[in-house]
Amino acid sequence: xxxxxxxxxxxxxxxxxxxxxxxxxxxxxxxxxxxxxxxxxxxxxxxxxxxxxxxxxxxxxxxxxxxxxxxxxxxxxxxxxxxxxxxxxxxxxxxxxxxxxxxxxxxxxxxxxxxxxxxxxxxxxxxxxxxxxxxxxxxxxxxxxxxxxxxxxxxxxxxxxxxxxxxxxxxxxxxxxxxxxxxxxxxxxxxxxxxxxxxxxxxxxxxxxxxxxxxxxxxxxxxxxxxxxxxxxxxxxxxxxxxxxxxxxxxxxxxxxxxxxxxxxxxxxxxxxxxxxxxxxxxxxxxxxxxxxxxxxxxxxxxxxxxxxxxxxxxxxxxxxxxxxxxxxxxxxxxxxxxxxxxxxxxxxxxxxxxxxxxxxxxxxxxxxxxxxxxxxxxxxxxxxxxxxxxxxxxxxxxxxxxxxxxxxxxxxxxxxxxxxxxxxxxx
Length: 428
Hints:
Blueprint: E1 3-11, E2 20-24, H1 27-30, E3 36-43, H2 50-63, E4 70-72, E5 81-85, E6 91-98, E7 128-135, E8 140-147, H3 153-167, E9 200-202, E10 219-226, H4 228-235, H5 244-260, E11 267-275, E12 293-296, E13 299-301, H6 302-307, H7 310-322, H8 326-338, E14 344-346, E15 359-363, E16 380-384, E17 393-398, E18 406-413, H9 414-423
Parallel strand pairs: 6-7, 11-15, 15-17
Antiparallel strand pairs: 1-6, 2-5, 3-8, 3-16, 4-5, 7-8, 9-14, 10-18, 11-12, 11-13, 17-18
């Protein structure tokens, strides 16, 4: 696939340079890895013009100004912020042509080739980067990267939906919330939970905390589809009610661990991303723009995971998720305040590219991908990460091509991936 770049421009911030506002990053922004995230949306023709998309984008950025801002003090682990207005910032917009029909590359599955469909993340100069990839048939793939410390997946989903509505000329009735007063520490602050080694590490890092180099084994991305019928069969095995996420997380933990062939007495962990908005008291509005995701970590020995029932493993996941409540969130806010004079490093930044014997599972199931409709009657035919390079990372996403159910993107070494595909749908 040859991607021909037609133009590359920067959409400036909507505020004049004389008006500058600094929005401090919260502890929830800083516990997130310091990286750009990438996602692809693919649409069958007919699709709106790039000009229409750009005009809608400029309107959306007035509502989501931090996406066009710039990080100030990004190297200061104490109190960085997003500067809106002033010099710098803006959004990178790239336009490309591809001399293929979109059908020629469908169905889209994560691959290093798809990295061409969005701006590079490792040398990003802007918090938000967007690439419009036009195919010969009129099909469109929009590749987006955003700095994770400015917004989580829930926030970016709200941005995509708003942008799409503005392109279609629709009324916007939900606006982003930037109020940080909901996240202030208690007086006096106190830590009721241990956050060292779980959320943050002190700086400088001890040598034992540094990431290990990537092994020579090639990491590949496996996409497996779990139909509504298959999910119902797993739920039928449950003596108590569990969410779709919990049962699929348990099922995948079992299958990935078995595919890796680990010793039965090895301890394995699964990092689970939890949206904290509704878990704080009072709850943070769902429109809150920024990060409000925390990780919780169920642990067990390989024997318990591989030989235990799906119900047993789902209970481990359920109990770990349940530990993320108002008390834990308030404790983390206070931890950040108590250690305000120290340099802290997110544990997520020192994990490295190989998670084995552990894994991480992120859910995109609650993202309203079906509402990302830019009009012109073009139907959504792809919603996915471009490529997952981290061994042991799993992403659950809704299937958007009419099958329903859930797609799981699983990044594993090749030899483990082959076995995983063979056992991915076994119910034992």
